[in-house]
Amino acid sequence: MTNSNYQLTKQDFKQINRRNLFTFQLGWNYERMQNTSYLYIMLPQIRKIYGDNTDELKQVMKNETQFFNTSNFFNTIITGTDLAIQEKEGIKSLETVSGLKVGLMGSFAAIGDSIFAALIPAIFGAIAANMAVAGNPTGVFLWIAVNIGIMYFRWRQLEFAYKEGVNLVTRMQAKLSALTDAATLLGVFMVGALVATMINIKIGTVIHLGDLNVVLQDKIDMILPKLIPAAIVGLVYWMLGRKNMTATRAIFIVLFVSIALSAIGVIAKG
Questions:
Q1: How many helices (H) and strands (E) in the chain?
Q2: d(CA 34, CA 143)
Q3: Three-state SS at 95
Q4: What is the tens place of the pLDDT at every residue in 133-142?
């Protein structure tokens, strides 16, 4: 047990969630990534558990600033479990807490980023974009509603994880790998569907052979429909792997090259 026997309250959960939503990525660094932010969002609570200026607090702060990197959408599940263990076991739980963080941050990073950073934006973003293209303003509200739902999920997971504590980890551990694989596969499937439906571009060149006009795009479609959109995505993916290339630079390169090729008739809207 700790010296204070302090137990977290509703106000503590609100404080952690506010810090998490607005500051979790502010302390990101290349050496230990999210470690300082992880400590910052829970610092007031561990001070209440161990007391100010105590040797235990210094030891815990040092332990909580070890390497940490996981999904923004699942990180407070680890925080809640961490605090539940420390609240119960005190300073002797630090080794358990370190193992817990190392064991969970990778799995939750894969699950959280696959579902909330890729899958959900891809599905509902495509629906909202299609509505916008069709002149339906409902897509804007759909996109806002989805993001409010995600924020609510992030807000509620902390208290849930705190109450479940170690039992949460024990019950879910066997399902984490399967859930990660399923989410990743579904995300790749949705990206492929987006490439085929949202990138509307075709080759506009027509080759004249005497009286015969050969539409180059028709010949390419005989090989593989939507080959040009897939090739463009592959090219951008390759570009993003080059040194000094950023997503913003890639966007401008695609924009300027598309304008130039369209002006001379090489490409056209699909």
A1: 11, 4
A2: 28
A3: helix
A4: 888 888 889 9
DSSP H helices in the chain: 10-23, 35-50, 55-64, 75-89, 94-112, 120-133, 138-164, 166-198, 216-223, 227-240, 247-263
Which one-letter DSSP state was computed for residue 68?
B
pLDDT at residue 198 tops 80? no
Which residues lie across from 267 on neighbouring strands? 203
What backbone phi and psi angles, to 5 degrees, belong to 212?
Answer: -95, 130
Q: What is the pLDDT of residues 207-265, one digit of tens each?
A: 887 778 888 888 888 888 888 888 998 999 899 888 888 877 888 999 999 999 999 88
Residues found in the chain: 270
Least Cα distance to 70 among 220, 199, 210, 180 occurs for 180
Q: Cβ distance 78 to 154 under 8 Å?
A: no
Query: What is the rounded CA–CA span in Å between residue 66 and residue 39?
Result: 9
Give the separation between CA 254 and CA 248, rounded to whole angstroms: 10
Checking if the pLDDT of 2 tops 70, the result is no
